[in-house]
Fold:
Amino acid sequence: MGRTKNFFLLAIVSVLVLAIGVTVAYFIVRIEGEGKTISVDTANLKVIFTDTNAEIEALDIEPGSSIPSKTFTVESQTDSVYNYNIIIKDLVNTFVTEGYLQYQIVGTNGGVSKDWTDVPKSATATDTVLYYSVPLAVGATHSYTINFRYTYDEEVNQSADMGKIFSGSIFITEGTEDPNKTLVTKLLENNPVRLTVGGSSVTYEGTTYTPRASFDVTDIQTYTNAIYQTNNAEHGDTVYYYSGNHTNNWVIFGTCKSATYNCTVGDDLYWRIIRTNEESTGGGVRLLYSGSGSRTVGDHKAIATTTNALINTSTKFNNFSQVSSSNRPDRYAGYMYGTNGYEHSDIRANTQSSTIKEVVDTWYTTTFTENNLKSKIDTKAVYCNDRSYTNESWNSTGSSNNYFGAYGRLVNAKAPSYACGANTSGYGNYFTGGNDNKDRFTGESYTYGNGLLSDAPLALMTIDEAAYAGSKINSSLKSPYAWHYLNAGGASITGGTNWWTLTAHFSNSSYAYNYAVYGSTTYPGYLSGRYSTNTFGVRPVLSLTSDTLWASGNGTVDSPYRIVET
Structure:
């Protein structure tokens, strides 16, 4: 494509607040400004804009050259937290191309940051928010640099932008909620403190937050405003998760369609947030089914003390009978499995659905009949039925136990992982020849998923997710602080019923085992491998897409998160 050399005329002037202006013209460039420090005082805060470039003159600036940055501070003068928006007042942006005229917010001393983003289009002067509702603590001062750029692309003719206008003034206004705020954004906003297991304590607004020391401690201190994070995931992306007795991860999504599933028709379905998903696999929020309750707005008492967080109270993970050596049960630890042979590759052939998968699939197709709700469910989310193995080689004769990968991670190493098939340290994988998608169950077939959940894109919680949440794999260590075990009243959310996870435990010539979570008060939240033919409860897990919009609520049982469903 032809190349055209573009030149700018930029006029940057400080007026009451920090003004910016850009006009693209031919052959000549001049940047000039009247730089000075201007203070804007209100009853609530002081904003000081500083333009250090008093007189700037430059010639022959092309696309790709820098545009002078603008700096300012926002200082609290209140006795409570103040929320403010960063806006471009009277924005005019008539540039035609996409992806070239951009801004970046760099905040320090507690100020927020935003990576390079396109400047919104506006044919007429319009106040445009760059960042919504930034919390400013008492006595705090946030510092900012806002950068602008018009990038150069040698493969694209950018001459359409010649003569176009970009102008406006950087301004601060009272904070408002972003009408396009996602659920992911809201939950991170409500939990600004990020902790790492075994990491350092964090001080936030006068409170010191001390993270749990390991994945094998009895007590787990839970704080308001704090969640945990880890990069120990499939692709090294940051994952945020709830650990301990969190009480602000409740979500309402969908309604009960059939009393067959332990609910009253028409009631809201309640979920609890397990974690965020990796950006590489769709992002979004992963939810654990947690019962149903009255759909009366503001009345959530029915769910606060529920003991019915199950769609089914007595389901086998898999129904099989041990008849002869030709019917070895190894395969039955799989959410799906092969029907021939004993080799590891046969066990992971995924030609037959497990008993519990059929239960989950039927519940989904009965419950989610509305397309507007189905469109919110992420089909790229990975549900890991980890059938990697701890042994050096798979014992196809069944003469000794074949332990699946989770046993090495959780029992031996106390190192859970969000990576499917991770080794005993929580990293990497066991699969010979590299990881593949046989154990990565997804609703959509793509690079990181097998697409075998296309009819019902959901599954179960994994043992690794339960361990991150606070469960233990040790009968001497109870787990009463794991949020997934508790209702809002502090009792078993399943009424004492054990429930299945998605994770395989071990197999031999006689039995297949899968991990379950104990719901009883004897071993609350405790994780244990059980015969796959045992009848335990079922709690589905699904994921909402990363662009699912937040509608209301702060995640507490009195104000659960609601999403924009249409």
Q: What stands out?
A: The chain has seven helices and 36 strands. The CA atoms of residues 198 and 214 lie 6 Å apart. The helical segments are 183-190, 301-304, 344-347, 355-367, 371-374, 405-412, 463-469.
